[in-house]
Amino acid sequence: MSISDYALAIEDLTVSFDGFKAVDGLNLYIEKDELRVIIGPNGAGKTTVLDLICGKTKSTDGSIMFMNKEMTKLAEHEIVHAGVGRKFQTPSIYENLTVYENLEVSYPKGRSVFGSIGFKCTQEVDARIKEIAKEVFLEEFLDMESALLSHGQKQWLEIAMLLIQDPQLLMLDEPVAGMSVKEREQTAELLKGICKGRSVLVIEHDMDFVASIADKVTVLHQGKILAEGDMKTVQNNPKVIEVYLGH
Ligand code: ADP
Ligand code: MG
User: Fold this and answer.
1) Is 149 inside any structural domain?
2) Average pLDDT over residues 218-223
3) Could you tell me which residues come within 8 angstroms of residue 3 by beta carbon, excluding any fewer than 6 positions away?
4) Structural domain of residue 160, as residue ranges?
5) Which ligand is nearest to the CA of 45?
6) Domain count, the chain
């Protein structure tokens, strides 16, 4: 495969905070329709990688090609516009709005050929909201005030608010933290469904969860890749056991 075939091609990516390299010469290639999981000890640089991709942190060196377009010099909103959606660890939903209203305000503006929100467009938005709500197990909760949702349901709502914008790359930082066993299983199903037609990049600690979703796992340690491959290969890697899994 050549670089242009990947949805995301990161090369020699480095960020230095006062001389400390949180990400150090990283090369990472993610395919279209791939669900990649990044694991590694606390402080390995996982969240910083997502910050660099979405433009929240600017790199010191290296390249981030997304859909064959260089991202490192773009502003955050331009990166969102290019098709990158990112979910942070704490959900940022509008607690006082219903599930339906949260999805409605997240629907991308100006996509309709009618320009303004007309009748036909409203129907289109309504159908899309219901479709997405079903995908994230919230179809029964559309009229509920979001504040009343469980922690897991709030996480799903935020995923839905990103999905409705149809990103080509969706990044999730520890999406199942604080979720019940049942919610974790449902989230695994959800993630396996949404990587059809887009790339998904997930940071996660729960190894059972990682095993249930990952195509490929990247282990990060001190800003560098320690190991990469399928779950089994990575789990049996002595270096990975030493710095991460053994603890
Ligand atoms: P992880 O998500 O793998 O636990 P992080 O990416 O959050 O790790 O952090 C990696 C390292 O970079 C940590 O040592 C952290 O303190 C440091 N770091 C992250 N962001 C900044 C920043 N904006 N300024 C200074 N140091 C930072
Ligand atoms: Mg982190």
Assistant:
1) yes
2) 97
3) 9, 11, 29, 65
4) 96-166
5) 1
6) 1
